[in-house]
Write a structure and sequence with these properties.
Blueprint: H1 14-24, E1 28-33, E2 45-52, H2 55-67, E3 72-75, E4 81-83, E5 88-95, E6 100-103, E7 106-110, H3 115-124, E8 127-128, H4 140-145, E9 149-150, E10 153-154, E11 159-165, E12 171-175, H5 188-191, E13 194-201, E14 203-204, H6 207-224, E15 230-234, E16 239-240, E17 245-246, H7 248-254, E18 261-262, E19 265-267, E20 274-277, H8 283-301, E21 310-312
This protein binds flavin-adenine dinucleotide.
Residues 39, 73-81, 95, 111, 136-139, 141-143, 145-146, 148-150, 188, 194-195, 225, 227, 231-233, 310 line the site of flavin-adenine dinucleotide.
Length: 313
């Protein structure tokens, strides 16, 4: 639960917290447990937590923490992260920027909009292109950051321009090529830029055709993924060999991953690349399980699996 900033952590620089509290006001909370903000349902407390409801608040919060040289982290839907049991030392900015604007065949959304809302708006307005994203949890910000995708398509196929906040505090409009999108990669992972908004270019299509595609994709997801379980989706990236893509799930199946567990951290019976919190798993359990799986894959195939899920600590 959140408490007020008055009882700022004794071990931290109280003066910094006081100034931050003066700058950010009541929306700044202290000692907020992060687990409920993640789909894994795992994670300790953030020293400080701020709900940014519009771009002005998001930009101001980032500018303020940078001025005080405090660590920060922008949290979207929390569907691609594993937060450490000891939480986060610094400020977590929960992005709730939620505006969308439709203009002919484009939709521009602020980065805190959930991907499902954009998919829905596009369908309602007979705009095709985002059907692949139906059922992917999280926000536009997280999706662009990791070039989220499914069924052979990804954000790279639809994003034509965006507005970002650079590490130096500049607000820039950039086009799709700026992101250097690749499989689950974008420049945001390296640059530390923050996505403020994104514009997607779509195509006119019969509404029924779009809805049919969306329904089909959702059905496929239901069969393949443990949607009810607490997880962060695929834990490891697929392996890009020179001539083909090797599914991490396939490699994990071959080492018998589904029978391996660590406390309440388990491998889904439905999908070997999805690690789940089956009760009260800790981040340390999930990490230990991930290490075991990586070791076995390395021993059997001489392949080093890379995490798709981001560790926050
Ligand atoms: C059941 C399930 C199914 C899934 N299926 C898929 C799938 O099919 N395909 C797929 O690609 N992924 C899938 N995922 C993973 C996840 O949903 C996506 O990666 C999603 O795009 C993450 O968005 P988020 O808002 O939750 O990001 P978060 O988890 O909140 O954050 C992830 C990273 O993005 C950064 N970030 C967030 N917002 C911004 C911003 N505005 N600017 C800069 N950086 C930002 C964060 O700082 C963090 O480093 C699935 C997850 C679950 C739980």
């Amino acid at each position: 639960m959140a408490t007020t900033i008055k009882s700022a952590l004794s071990t931290r620089n109280k003066e910094v917290y006081k100034k931050l509290s003066e700058a950010l006001g009541d929306q700044l909370k202290q000692n907020v447990v992060l687990a409920p903000y993640t789909t894994f349902g795992i994670g300790g407390k953030a020293d400080l937590f701020y709900l940014a409801k519009n771009p002005k608040e998001l930009i101001y919060a980032i500018g303020t923490v940078q001025k005080f040289k405090l660590r920060f982290f922008v949290l979207g839907g929390g569907s691609n992260i594993l937060v450490s049991d000891s939480g986060f030392r610094g400020l977590v900015i929960k992005n709730q920027n939620h505006m969308m604007v439709l203009n002919k065949n484009t939709i521009t959304c602020q980065s805190g909009v959930s991907l499902s809302e954009v998919v829905e708006l596009a369908g309602d307005r007979s705009l095709s292109g985002l059907e692949f994203a139906a059922g992917i949890p999280g926000t536009v910000g997280g999706a662009v950051w990791g070039n989220a995708g499914a069924f052979g398509k990804s954000m790279a196929d639809v994003l034509i321009s965006a507005v970002i906040l650079t590490r130096k505090g500049e607000i820039k409009e950039v086009d799709g090529s700026y992101f250097h999108f690749a499989y689950r990669e974008s420049i945001l992972k390296r640059s530390g830029d923050i996505l403020l908004s994104a514009t997607f270019k779509l195509k006119k299509q019969d509404r029924e055709v779009i809805e049919k595609k969306v329904r089909r994709n959702l059905q496929k997801r239901e069969v393949r993924l443990p949607l009810e379980a607490k997880s962060a989706g695929c834990f490891f990236k697929n392996v890009m060999a020179t001539d083909r893509k090797i599914s991490a799930g396939f490699l994990l199946d071959q080492i018998g991953a589904k029978n391996i567990k660590e406390g309440d951290a388990k491998v889904s019976n439905q999908h070997a690349n999805i690690l789940i919190n089956s009760g009260s798993a800790k981040a340390k359990d999930v990490k230990k399980l991930a290490r075991k799986l990586k070791k076995k894959v390395k021993e059997k195939f001489n392949i080093e699996l890379q995490e798709e899920v981001v560790y926050i600590n």
